Amino acid sequence: MRKLVVSIHSTANNIVTGPPDGDETDFPRWAQPGIDQSTNQFLTSLDGVDTMVLGRGTYEDLVRKWPNVQEWPDVPDVAVRIAEKINTAHKFVVTSRSTDQLDWGAYEPATPIAGPDLERQIHQLKAAEGGDIITFGSPVLVQALTNAALVDEYRIIVHPVIMHEGRRLFEIWTVGPISRWSRSSRSRPAR
What we know:
Helix content: 25-40%
Number of domains: 1
Shape: globular
Domain Bacterial bifunctional deaminase-reductase C-terminal: 79-171
GO molecular function, one term: 5-amino-6-(5-phosphoribosylamino)uracil reductase activity
Number of helices: 6
InterPro entries: DHFR-like_dom_sf, RibDG_C
Distance between the termini: 23 Å
Order of helices and strands: EHHEHHEEHEHEEE
Protein name: Dihydrofolate reductase
Organism: Friedmanniella luteola
């Protein structure tokens, strides 16, 4: 069975989004301390991944950027390498509208996951042949996947900043023990 991995950027006090009154996907505003190291860690987290599960908001943010990143001026090599991995991965988007067209530029479009049986659909993805599955961003989706005991590994990239606004990752979790933590390049079993 394939692993479902969560990779997410966080402040030292567990904030994973931008402020709620603005663009919640604007975490780079506070992620600048340590951004080079965390970008390389994120690239590494995509090794072995061939499928992404995204929340609708994260999909909307990513589809505006990654399919065309090579056209941007002065794009760092690491961003081009991340774009290649993201653009060529199979993408599934959790959405309330199953009939949505989820284009991804010149690449394979994303597939909607909709309806009340999200848990069953994710189990089917995990049981299918292929590489690991990753989700990033999408803190509400991460919480739902965790509450359903579907997450196999967490890769939390902690930035050395404290923020007072934004969504916290660990606000509403109800599941039992976490199967595995990955912090920076070290991993240890949860207790």
